Amino acid sequence: METVPDGDVEPCKIQTDAQSLDSLFSECTRRLDEERQALHQSSQALAKERSLLEKEKAEMTSKNINQGDVIELNVGGENFAASRRTLLCAPTDSYFHALFSGRWEESLSRDSQGRVFLDINPDIFRVLLSHLRTIAFTDPEKRPYLGKDSTNDREFWGTMKYLGLTDPLLDEVPIIDAYFLRVDGSERAKVTPTAEFISVKNQQQARGHTFVCGAKNLLCNMNSAMWKVRITSKKHWMFIGIIAKPAASNESHLDNTSYGLAGPGQTVKSGKTEATPSWTTDWQTGNTAILTLCLEIGALEIIVFRYDGAETAEYFKIPISNQHLNNSSMKQEWRLHFNLCDPNDSLEIYPTMTKRELEVFDSLRGG
């Protein structure tokens, strides 16, 4: 076999290297062209949206229409009120946005009281309005994804399609109205609403029960409710669950409508603590919990996410007593319920969950 003298390079190797470089250059050029095209399309879309906004602003000015106007609506027989600014948080190219832009002000259908009439399901509109109010104070570049109502999927998405609101916007799914009410009158807990979550903190100087109770949840009217809670500080013992009472007290975790998870191995069912061998790790700082109350399956489901270097998730299903399921007056009273036992124990309640959390939740519950 002929050898190649030192310092020389085989011609075939030079050719191969040249071909590799040509291929790499072609691939880089192709990707650069794609990015340029995408940037150009994005620029065109922004220019179009800016043009529409300017046109809309001019039309609103000419008709003396203000974004601060309060719009009264009759939606499927139920009355609502919202600022025009909130309603215009819908995508600018949607039919819903156009309805309240001022362009069609004189042609809108109205009831006998002059309220704008929308012939759609009021429960679905309530979810939509909550979503719009959430994004009204959210960074425009981080508008939350309009999630679906799991109890009436076909009608929900049919309505969204009719209103032109089917485009996903981000990796967030709204699950509750961003409203939380402390009903413990002892001033033991501090509740602080922010634009992204609601903070709850035990402000006692010594250890002792501090109960916090949520407001009625939006989706309870549809036989289901979902909450997301993140523990930001926890020392010894904490209870996270639900209750079907309008108020909390020092003993409310023992109420017969109380359900949830407490200390290591403690599941609370109808106010009674039961041993749960699978629940041995307890609540920990940094945990995220997704709680779902589904009256149709008769259970409180809890997914506990842990992030100790890697994500892990545990699933718990706590049956609800038939006595409580069959009580029609109790149906509207279910709400989030906490016991923060130590000074500075704290957590956060979020109105949205990520698609990743939703996917894990569905996979663990077999959905």
* Overall tally of domains: 2
Q: Write out the strand line-up for the largest beta sheet, numbering strands in chain order.
A: 5-6-17-8-13-14-15
Could you describe the largest sheet, including whether it forms a barrel? 7 strands, antiparallel
Mean pLDDT over the full residue set:
75
Q: Give me the secondary-structure category.
A: alpha+beta
Order of helices and strands: HEEHHEHHEEEEEEEEEEEEHEEEH
Pfam family, one: BTB_2
Pathway: Protein modification; protein ubiquitination
Organism: Cymbomonas tetramitiformis
Domain BTB: 69-141
Report on this model:
By secondary structure, the chain is an alpha+beta fold. The protein has 7 helices and 18 strands. It has 2 domains: 70-171, Potassium Channel Kv1.1, Chain A; 189-364, SPRY domain (Jelly Rolls). Helix content is 27%, strand content 26%. The strands form 4 sheets. The chain has a 7-stranded antiparallel beta sheet with strand order 5-6-17-8-13-14-15, with helices on one face. The chain is globular, with a radius of gyration of 27 Å. The termini are far apart. The model is unreliable at 147-152, 167-172, 176-186 and 217-221 (pLDDT under 50).
